[in-house]
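Narrative of accomplishments. A recurring question from our advisory board has been how the design workflow behaves on a single, concrete structure rather than in aggregate. To address it, we present the structure tokens for one chain from the evaluation set, followed by the sequence designed for it. No filtering or post-editing was applied between the two.
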């Protein structure tokens, strides 16, 4: 049996269960267990199937069983777990994935129990406290360093032990609880336990571990509680079709939804996950637009700015206006402003910067990607101990909310490799910025009392993002950030997500990030909850319009119009949708309503003219076009409309006059072509050929011109042009080009 066969069989069992075909699921499991010679699993399958057949018998005999749904759910749970076990049996023997590699090692070398790890860590913490009482000196530093290394190695072993652990027993869950409540265990170590269990759950379904994660969401230490809240979201998604069969877990989530703090934290985490999906777009924009633009700009800056004047003594506080001018000319001002706005909005703008700094040996260990940043880590010992004078400066930067834990380690490793003179320069620059960074952090906390919690969530999710995108063995894991944006559709989270304020917040975030499909779905959920407002329908309409689903967009706009009849924004879009749907009469009705509300809006007048044109009411169309031309003398859109409408209504002299004006004001290919048609109708054949030649040059090729010309053949025929001479005229055009 090869990996593909195993995956197919596993997927087949899951498909049978999800489509309520339990007999097929049992048949597949029996064949699989026999192929693997797993007689213990075969016995469990037989037992489950016997129970299922009894249930069917009672049902067919008409005997009502109030526990039937519970029995069915227990059977489904059993099938899922047996499928997991059989899949793992093959993979533990054959898979090279890190999870199964660690599981094989654990089977060979029996790991310590969690209580034993707890005792060792407590002993190391006590030892550290005793060493701290020693007088300052090299011996104290050395002992602290050695003790720190022992503790880090123990925590690393603990992480891998939990990461590869089998399904938990009640006794083991109690050990988790004791570990995370122990006062001597450092918070950072407790955080690692939560991360290890989360990663374990993403590889192996374990309801007891998940229940402990839910319990940990209420941990008194916010760092631990928030890691647990972050952890439950990808686990809920990974097994989203199973939770319906675990009413004790979904019921617990329903109760937790009534807790305002948990609910707020969970919504914040969901939004941070949605934001993480934007990271790839941000990285692409930086690497393909902003940075190349800046690289092209640097030689230009050298030429346009006098560097000697720039470095002069006078006017140091003044910014050179040439800098802004150069940025404007290069088209970078708006992009840099967009980048700054993204950063202020909490976007992960540093991923592209630090993604190239994950090649240090430190990042070869999976566990290190989840470490909370600690400047006392042994790998940073030489960095901070050699330059204590820079400690405060670096601490200021490393405590900033803008950089996640993983990137802080990368930053320090990069500084450690810098020559001394560059490190000194960096320290000086950090010193100049340290007060400003502190001030920014304080202001953030004043503006948002929950800022610290949101920062912890954001940084941890960014750490997870870097692990799943950059870890050298990332292909051994299913990327939780490549899944669809359906956080609002995770049924176990409905008790929280389907509260109006929470769903509005999630929908708005989708909308602001241009995730229009997800935004429309979330807003539609709001309408189904009876929470629809005029704005809700407006946004649904806009989302559908952006997705090219014009009819659905129109239906939503019409609902918005029923709630607010005089909203000009809505009326414009309704009219525009009708035009796109080739219903000019309906579009005209809404443009007429707009005309009453905004009589001075020339764009509305122009669109009314377009509707009349599409209805073949040329005289009415020309009246509106002439009105726009009268009130706005340089409106080339009005000129084009008048010229084409005049052509269609056989007023060739009017069309000729307006096309002459257009040709003098940045004409395009269609202008030359249409002007040629007018001259042809007026029997000015020579002038028509000249204009057609200009149209060819503007189009860039004869073939493009020919395509455009052919599209107008019906109009030329109806205008009375002698169609027999057209091939000759076109040959003349070919000769002249």
């Amino acid at each position: 049996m090869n990996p593909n066969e195993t995956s197919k069989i596993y997927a087949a069992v899951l498909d049978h269960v999800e489509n309520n075909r339990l007999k097929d699921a049992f048949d597949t499991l029996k064949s699989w267990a026999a192929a693997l010679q797993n007689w213990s699993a075969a016995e469990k399958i037989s037992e489950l199937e016997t129970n299922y057949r009894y249930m069917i018998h009672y049902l067919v005999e008409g005997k009502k069983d109030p526990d039937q749904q519970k029995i069915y759910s227990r059977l489904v749970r059993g099938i899922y777990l047996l499928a997991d076990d059989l899949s793992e049996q093959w993979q533990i023997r054959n898979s090279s994935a890190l999870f199964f590699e660690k599981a094989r090692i654990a089977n060979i070398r029996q790991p310590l129990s969690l209580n034993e790890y707890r005792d060792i860590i407590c002993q190391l913490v006590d030892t550290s406290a005793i060493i701290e009482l020693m007088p300052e000196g090299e011996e104290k530093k050395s002992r602290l360093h050695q003790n720190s290394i022992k503790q880090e190695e123990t925590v690393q072993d603990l992480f891998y032990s939990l990461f590869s652990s089998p399904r938990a027993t009640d006794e083991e869950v109690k050990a988790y609880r004791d570990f995370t409540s122990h006062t001597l265990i450092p918070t950072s170590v407790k955080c690692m336990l939560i991360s290890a269990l989360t990663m374990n759950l993403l590889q192996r379904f374990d309801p007891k571990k998940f229940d402990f994660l839910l319990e940990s969401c209420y941990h008194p230490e916010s760092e631990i509680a928030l890691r647990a809240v972050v952890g439950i979201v990808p686990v809920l998604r990974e097994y989203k079709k199973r939770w319906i069969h675990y009413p004790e877990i979904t019921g617990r989530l329903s109760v937790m939804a009534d807790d305002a703090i948990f609910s707020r934290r969970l919504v914040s985490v969901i939004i941070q996950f949605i934001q993480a999906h934007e990271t790839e777009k941000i990285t692409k924009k930086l690497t393909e637009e902003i940075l190349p633009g800046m690289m092209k700009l640097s030689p230009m800056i050298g030429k346009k700015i006098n560097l000697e004047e720039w470095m002069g003594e006078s006017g140091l506080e003044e910014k050179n206006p040439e800098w802004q001018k150069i940025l404007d000319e290069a088209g970078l001002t708006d992009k840099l402003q967009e980048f700054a706005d993204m950063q202020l909005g909490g976007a992960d703008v540093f991923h592209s910067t630090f993604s190239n700094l994950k090649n240090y040996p430190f990042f070869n260990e999976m566990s290190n990607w989840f470490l909370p940043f600690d400047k006392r880590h042994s790998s940073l010992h030489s960095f901070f101990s050699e330059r204590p004078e820079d400690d405060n400066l670096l601490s200021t930067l490393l405590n900033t909310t803008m950089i996640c834990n993983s990137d802080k380690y990368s930053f320090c490793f990069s500084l450690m490799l810098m020559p001394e003179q560059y490190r000194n320069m960096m320290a000086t620059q950090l010193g100049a910025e340290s007060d400003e960074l502190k001030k920014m952090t304080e202001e953030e906390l004043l503006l948002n009392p929950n800022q610290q919690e949101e920062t912890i969530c954001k940084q941890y999710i960014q750490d997870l993002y870097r692990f799943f995108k950059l870890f050298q063995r990332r292909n051994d894991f299913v990327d939780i950030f490549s899944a669809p944006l359906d956080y609002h559709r995770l049924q176990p989270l409905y008790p929280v997500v389907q509260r109006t304020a929470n769903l509005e917040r999630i929908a708005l975030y989708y909308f602001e990030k241009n995730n229009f499909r997800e935004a429309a779905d979330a807003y539609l959920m709001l309408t189904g909850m009876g929470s629809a407002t005029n704005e809700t329908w407006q946004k649904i309409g806009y989302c559908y319009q952006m997705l090219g689903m014009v009819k659905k967009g129109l239906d939503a706009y019409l609902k918005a119009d029923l709630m607010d009849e005089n909203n000009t924004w809505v009326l414009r879009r309704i009219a525009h949708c009708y035009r796109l749907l080739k219903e000019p009469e309906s579009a005209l009705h809404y443009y007429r309503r707009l005309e009453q509300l905004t009589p001075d809006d020339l764009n509305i007048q122009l669109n009314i003219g377009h509707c009349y044109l599409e209805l073949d009411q040329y005289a009415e169309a020309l009246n509106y076009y002439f009105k726009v031309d009268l009130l706005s003398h340089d409106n080339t859109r009005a000129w084009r409309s008048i010229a084409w409408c005049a052509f269609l209504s056989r007023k060739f002299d009017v069309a000729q006059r307006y096309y002459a004006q257009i040709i003098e004001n940045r004409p395009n290919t269609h202008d030359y072509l249409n002007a040629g048609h007018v001259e042809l109708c007026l029997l000015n054949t020579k002038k028509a050929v000249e204009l057609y030649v200009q149209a060819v040059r503007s189009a860039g090729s004869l073939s493009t011109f020919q395509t455009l010309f052919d599209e107008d053949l019906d109009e030329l025929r109806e205008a009375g042009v002698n169609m027999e001479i057209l091939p000759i005229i076109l040959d003349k055009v070919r000769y002249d080009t």
